[in-house]
Amino acid sequence: MADATGNKIAKNYYLDTPAQKTGFHVKGMNHADWGMKDRLSRIFSKTSGNTLMLAFDHGYLMGSTAGLERLDIVIPQLANDIDVFMATRGALRTCVPPDYNKAVALRVSAGSTVAVDDVTHEFLGVDINDALRLNASCIAVQTFVGVQGEEKKSLKNLSGAVNMGSKYSIPVLGVVAVGKSMQRDTKFFLLATRVLAELGASVVKTYYCEDFEKVTAACPVPIVVAGGKKLPENEALTLAYKAISEGANGVDMGRNIFQAENPAAMAKAVRKIVHENYTDATAYEFYKDIIK
Fold it and tell me: Which listed residue (102, 205, 214, 272) is catalytic?
């Protein structure tokens, strides 16, 4: 059994050596079966290797969120420029037309809301049969690494989702949540992303941090960066650019798109970074040209 005591801190991340993608364009998935690869190919572009996810699953713990008061109006305005809907089953069934043919990252964890000021208490709330009925490309589970009393339960949720998904070749998106007592530093994200991948997550969603290229190098599956809190548009584009430049295979933006001054223009600008090698500066100029 591994023991943390006396454990040597690794330093060689081989940052000058990209991950091998022999035979398949998604990192770490060369040996997955056909169905798993098919679903991952809906998420990650074969051309760029990246993905732009639109997160609008906030309502499952926050209720009505600014910018998402009317999903049935907002989502159609953004759908053409994103690759993946990250949503709850309720939102998909009631507010999202099924003819966009977009990949779906289905939120399957549920639990406490902001009404009790502690959203760490989660469980698996969607079974695999409903994920299949919704044609999910992956199922998303929130995890609380390092949160006393909740870590074990949330990692059990993740493992349960991996076991369910493996039966039907549905990938799992492991979502790194940050507890109130955890620091958003390189050490934490190196731990959390690696743990989720080792437990079977095919994709890991996490936050950007200092020395982010070490985090992406040490994680054997694709990392998608969360947009996090609302930033000014130029800063959100810089976040996306830095993440992609330092090894992320996509961004999952919510508030930084749907709360932007012009959400449709922002989605187009972020897409330029994710798929067309735009810098943050050129993407921001592109954004400003649209909204003139």
Answer: 205
